[in-house]
Amino acid sequence: MRDVIDRDGFRANIGIVLMGEDGRLFLGRRIGGRGWQFPQGGMGCGETLEQSLFRELKEEIGLGAEDVQIIGRTRHWLRYRLPARYVRRHIQPLCVGQKQRWFLLKLRDPAIIFRFDETPQPEFDNWRWVDYWQPIREVIYFKRVVYTRVLHEFGPVAFPAGAPPYPSTGPALAAAAIPSRPAAS
Fold it and tell me: What pLDDT, on the 0 to 100 scale, is given for residue 184?
């Protein structure tokens, strides 16, 4: 699969926030214990957002479209830059970061079994359910603002009566994450 990288060097990517029936979120541990994150992955050339979503869902955690319900999606692309040490300068076109569209999914069957062996190079080796704002604390530092924006945008959809309160570090992150103007599509 060929990556889709725009003229500014951002790789097109989809992110998945998977919610259980109790409102907690799926968080996967990257292979080798290299941190925790939501499932995400690059879009292939010619793929629609939904095609990328369901391919990544299958590859990363072994679920199909029948296992989930789409209940939300971000309105705009959300971007983050990679720190210089993560930029692979020897690979062209140069990728300086990710631009992501995120989906909020509700798991249909709470007894589902997640599988990490759908590809030769799995992304995750473990998982757990976490409270709504917990992923912001656990994701690698350069993704935290995007995670905060995503969870802030999905809060009213996930919790129509009101999202859980921010953790003690939440208000500062939330203020940084709410854009003063909509991001370009």
Answer: 46
